[in-house]
From TrEMBL:
InterPro entries: P-loop_NTPase, Small_GTPase_ARF/SAR. SUPFAM superfamilies: P-loop containing nucleoside triphosphate hydrolases. Gene3D superfamilies: P-loop containing nucleotide triphosphate hydrolases (3.40.50.300). One of its GO terms (molecular function) is GTP binding. PANTHER family: ADP-RIBOSYLATION FACTOR-LIKE PROTEIN 16. Keywords: GTP-binding, Nucleotide-binding. The keyword Nucleotide-binding applies. This is ARL16 protein. It comes from the Eukaryota. It comes from Stercorarius parasiticus (Parasitic jaeger). GTP binds at residues 29, 83-86.
Amino acid sequence: PAPFPSRQVGTNLTDLRLPRRATVRELGGCMGPIWPSYYGECSALMFVVDAANPSQVSNSCVQLLSVLSAAQLASVPVLVLFNKIDLPCYMSLAEMKSLFRMQDIVSCATQPITMLETSARDGTGLADVLQWLRAALGDPR
């Protein structure tokens, strides 16, 4: 079974124990216009990019820049997840960093930014995501 249940696009809540309880709110890309209404309660941000869909790279980059420029998120740690690396057509981390111009984004951002490759389908990278989340939320471990 997949580590993440399959869900409809929209807003979903999931509670994690890291060991401290943390609530993860998933907001689908099409929900971009309402994202700012959740910024005030955000302690850490995970931004998921479909690394197997080159046609969405420019849109994802614009959305990421919009999130990073939000005043309420100016000091919130950010994890950019390049997902779907289990698919044969995925773009490598180096390709995604280049397409997103991540070096420029990181140098201009006020937030600490981490990048990881993941597969929600087979769980690749999940342990690293949980480790980042624990650190970002100040959980000991």
